[in-house]
Structure formats: C-alpha cells, structure tokens
Amino acid sequence: MSELTPEETALLNRVQAPAGQGREIPDAATREIIGRAPELSVADLDDAIARAKAAQSGWEALGHAQRSALLLKVADAIDANAEPLARILSREQGKPLNGPNARFEVGACSAWLRTAASTVLEPEVIVDDGETHAELHYRAIGVVGAIGPWNWPMMIAIWQIAPSLRMGNTVVIKPSEYTPLSVLAMVAVMNEVLPADVLIAISGGREVGARLAAHPDIDKVMFTGSTATGRKIIESSAGNLARLTLELGGNDAGIVLPGTDPQAIAQDLFWGAFINTGQTCAALKRLYVHDSIYDDVVDALKGIAEQTPMGDGLDEANVLGPLQNRQQFDIVSRLVEDARANGGRIVTGGAPATELGELFYPITLVADVKDGDALVDEEQFGPALPIIRYSDVEDAVASANRLNVGLGASVWGDREQAREVAARVQAGTVWINSHGGVHPMIPFGGVKGSGYGLEFGVEGLKSVAVPQIING
C-alpha cells in the first residue's frame, strides 16, 4: 500500500478511533488496514439526535440566504481538501482516483452543494381570485436521519445532506460500516464552516442504523441501499410517521434498437454498465440487443473491456478497481458461475483476477443468456453484464418491465423511436443513448421495488420539507 500523505493522515487522525479502539477498515485493493472507524453506541446516537434537535430551530431561523451562503463556503472547504478526500475514498472504497471515480465523486460533492444552495424555491400562489388568497410554502421538517451506502459514500451523503440543510433541517448521518472514514472526513471538513450540531456523523453498526430509522425525534429518513433494508426502514419508521425518501435496489435494463451503430454507442454502453466497476445503483445491469446487431455490439464491448485498465485505485493509470467487499465479490462470482453452468457464453473475464488482489473481478461479458437466468434476474452490482438477444421490440420492453424494480433504464438508437419506446418502460428515469448520468437539477427516484421519493433540484428541496398553506 502506498504511504498515506500528510494531508490524508491529518484528516484521518481527526475522525478515526484512538489506537487499539474502533473497527479496522482495510484498503479495498490491498486489504491493508488504513484506519479505525469509531464504533459508537445507540446511546451516542440518542445524544447526537438530541443535540441536532436542539440546534435545528436556530439553524432554520438563519433563513435561506444565510444558510445558502454557508453551504457555498462548505463547498469551497471540500474543494480545498479535495485531493486527500479523494485518496481516502479511493483506498477505502476501491475506486481509482481517475476516470468517473474518486476525484469525480469529490467534485460532485461540491457541485451538488452549490446547486442546493442556489436553487430557488419560491412560495406558490394557489388561489388569488379577489376573495381568497392562498399560498403554498415549504418549511423545514426538523431532524433528518440519513443512512448512506458504500458504493458512492461521499456523493450520496451529500445528496442527503445538502438539500436537508438548505431547507433548514439538521442532519444526523450514519455512513456504511464498509466505508465510514471517507464520510467522517468529509463531515469534519464541512463542520469547519457549519454551526455546531447542525450536521453530525455517527459511525456504528446495524443497531445504530436501526435506531436512527425508528427514533421518535427523527422527522425524515433518507436511505440509499437494498430493497430488503428499505422495507425494514419503512416498518421501523411507522412508530413516529417519519417521512421517507428511499432509493433502493435496481436492475436497470438497456434496450438497443435495430439500426443502431454498435461502434457509436459502445463507449457509453460500457460506462453505463461498468462505472465504479458496476457498483452503482443505476448502472446498466441487463442489456437487450436486437438480433441484427447482437454480435457486433458484443464484439464492440469486448474490445473496450480488454483495453480498460483495472488495478489499485491510487495508480493514476487505472480507471477500474476491486469489488469493495467480500460479500459483493461472492455475489458476482456466484452469478457468473450460474450463468456459465446454464449455457451462458463468457465473452471476456469470467474468473477472479487474483493476480491483482483478493477482491478483483475483471469486466465480464456474458452472452447468450435469457430472462430467468440468475445473472439477468438478480442485481449483480458488479462487473458482470448479461447480454440478451431479442428479435421483437415489444418483447424487449416486456422483458425490461418484468421485474419488480424500476430505478433506471435506457433505450439506444434513433432518438425519436427511442423516446417512443422509453415511454413504455417502467422506470423512474429512462435515458436515451446514455445510461446512469445524473444532474443536480434533474429529479431522480425509482418506482416499484426501487423505492419512492425524489432527489435533486426543486423537487429534491420539496422532499426534505413540509408543505404549509397560508390561506387568507
């Protein structure tokens, strides 16, 4: 493992547990220990929520303009610490520094903060007929409990934090047990600017997350993660009727229409599937390709896969990294082996890349699979893409819609034809000739088993606020 820089060391020393305490966090690529995450208790969480509740009214009273100004300064602070934050993230999560990875993620954090700070949400006049004047306003909810994932730990944390703070809420955030250090470090930087107890990060185990979702003083829960955990959060939050935003599991389908040029779309298809080595909720996870161009699309993707460097994220040449944890590595391995056993054709990859390290799995393209195969029906969340042949577009749409998930999807081909097909696909977002791109002003959320609630832009601000009608 390359040595920690002085800047990394200084940041980690601000947030990690003392020597001999806490939980050891390994480098995802080398498995060497990079730091120790504090293991706080439910009692610590209760204290944090009490402090956040006490700070909320004062934070809300600052008003939108002053809160926005502070958030812009927070974005500046993240930018000033961008490189050590990116290096900690790369070590802990595994994603390389370059490409759409660690430096990209840290840059997205400041970009989303600036957008949340600058987005205007004006009161809306509902009725003004000379007799009645009614306006719709949005007020702070109170204390937001945020529970983050391990795949994009810093960026998704900001998706939860930035709009919540902008609208006058305080936030208690629990990062994933797999990737706590990067989020703790980022929150420490943010708290150099923010007033005390407006944003509190709590590192702990599952019992802390369960208590956060069920706590009577949590007014809103934001969660990104699996559908199974999302269901548990719904149950836990019922006692206090906390509002919810849930971005849950997906198994995004892509449909390549006949007449599409495989070479023209191959790069975007590849990164739609394999950004962050496939460990992305809205990655392309099952690809339906028309029979007339099927072999050409497979060959084009194979060519890119064989030329894209994978390895330790701190090596500036790499743009693909390891699986973040053993559990996910085992899921990918199992699904690929099942596809092989059921007649799937391994085009490239197909076996662990042990020469790179313990949790490396190469880009794996599996052709000649079908609906019903485990690799098609289960979310692999890793670098293995099933490619399914179809001959009728209606069949491809039916296949895309057959599973009880609907986070994202994409249609590739002539724009007008693609839009017509997209309108019949059941997903929160359907991209045309791209997949997975998000924008801080474009609402994002899932349907069916992929959750509910919107994030980003004006709709994202509304989702972390309560509507109030002023009538008279």
UniProtKB/TrEMBL annotation:
The keyword Protein biosynthesis does not apply. Residues 26-464 form the Aldehyde dehydrogenase domain. CDD domains: ALDH_AldA-AAD23400. It comes from the Bacteria. Transmembrane segments: none annotated. Keywords: Oxidoreductase. The active site is at residue 247. SUPFAM superfamilies: ALDH-like (SSF53720). InterPro entries: Ald_DH/histidinol_DH (IPR016161), Ald_DH_C (IPR016163), Ald_DH_CS_CYS (IPR016160), Ald_DH_CS_GLU (IPR029510), Ald_DH_N (IPR016162), Aldehyde_DH_dom (IPR015590), LUC3-like (IPR044086). PANTHER family: ALDEHYDE DEHYDROGENASE-RELATED (PTHR11699). Belongs to the aldehyde dehydrogenase family. This is Aldehyde dehydrogenase family protein. The lineage of its organism: Bacteria, Bacillati, Actinomycetota, Actinomycetes, Micrococcales.
